[in-house]
């Protein structure tokens, strides 16, 4: 994959896949990585108007003032009729953030994708509630990788072939009911498809994304209902993406996006509150920053500043030291509770140095 930073390299560990190790002795305060290239983000539906879509500012529930209107769209793409444009479900904290968002090359494709999804959500919301899903039944399936593969094969063999046989104007009828969750997830995949389409294939983000660890099986095994949810998101995108992004959508890429976002995404949190009190606002995927393992005694602090995420050493380290961050967990909890949080939220048994040594101590006391 090539180097990510001059300060560290990625190596295998015995306990938890790959991790980052310092190349030299490093001093406390060293910024070992500044990352601002996001491959996708998802803002929770209830907070969609309260978070700046560009810098992720959240101002204690205040609605963001800036939107994109038909006027801005006409400037971006003159000659297209933008009457009836709904703003693509985007809110910004300032004109600067809105303009920075609009300055992205080819951004009209992305806005068109968001707008289609928003339009479809609004139609579904007007048409009343969907048939109730039998969550209990869906969650009782015994999941294996073969079963997941089979479901996707069936989608390709049956549903996609059926849709392709229909006239384009009839395909919309095959779109599943869109919930707020489907909408948010589809939007996030839409962003990833857009970014991946326009990223240089040798860029660090692209190279990192390609080799991210997928947690598809562990997550779906824990919540089998997610398999049908993900298939529904795929169907929504298949029907609603504009042609420029539709051409990017394939089952393997979609599965990689969905499988990797779960274990690698960074939460977007309300700033300035304690870990137990702050609001969870959404998440974003920053592939080059996704090779840090978790430690319950992390030597790296992660600081979010607008779109940028900085990773800063909180102590001096020797060459070859593993550089770890803390995933979202209250580190003051006892070892069993911390490990429970990691298992429930991140689907792994934490084997960081602190947990290993505390577990050994408990073991020695008991036996
Ligand atoms: C964000 S990724 C970190 C990079 C990952 N190790 C890799 O090879 O791509 C998170 C995954 O790393 C592993 N991991 C991270 N911290 C760990 C820990 N303290 N104990 C065990 N596994 C860990 C888990 O498999 C987790 O799902």
What does this protein structure show overall?
The protein has 367 residues and is an alpha+beta fold. It folds into two domains: 8-36 and 286-366, SET domain (Beta-clip-like), CATH 2.170.270.10; 40-264, no CATH class. It is built from 13 helices and nine strands. It has helices at 70-76, 95-102, 107-126, 135-138, 145-165, 180-198, 204-210, 216-222, 225-240, 243-246, 251-264, 335-346, 353-366; strands at 8-12, 18-22, 31-35, 40-43, 266-269, 280-285, 300-305, 308-313, 322-323. A hairpin with a 2-residue loop joins β7 and β8. The protein binds S-adenosylmethionine. The site of S-adenosylmethionine has 18 residues, from β2 and α11. It comes from Zygosaccharomyces bailii (strain CLIB 213 / ATCC 58445 / CBS 680 / BCRC 21525 / NBRC 1098 / NCYC 1416 / NRRL Y-2227).
Q: Residue ranges: pLDDT <50 for 5 or more in a row?
A: none
Bound chemical compounds = S-adenosylmethionine
The pLDDT mean sits at: 93
Instruction: Quickly count the helices.
Output: 13
> Major sheet: order of its strands?
1-2-9
The total strand number stands at 9
Rg from alpha-carbon coordinates: 22 Å
Helix and strand succession?
Answer: EEEEHHHHHHHHHHHEEEEEHH
The separation of the N and C termini measures: 45 Å
In brief:
This protein has helices spanning 70-76, 95-102, 107-126, 135-138, 145-165, 180-198, 204-210, 216-222, 225-240, 243-246, 251-264, 335-346, 353-366; strands at residues 8-12, 18-22, 31-35, 40-43, 266-269, 280-285, 300-305, 308-313, 322-323.
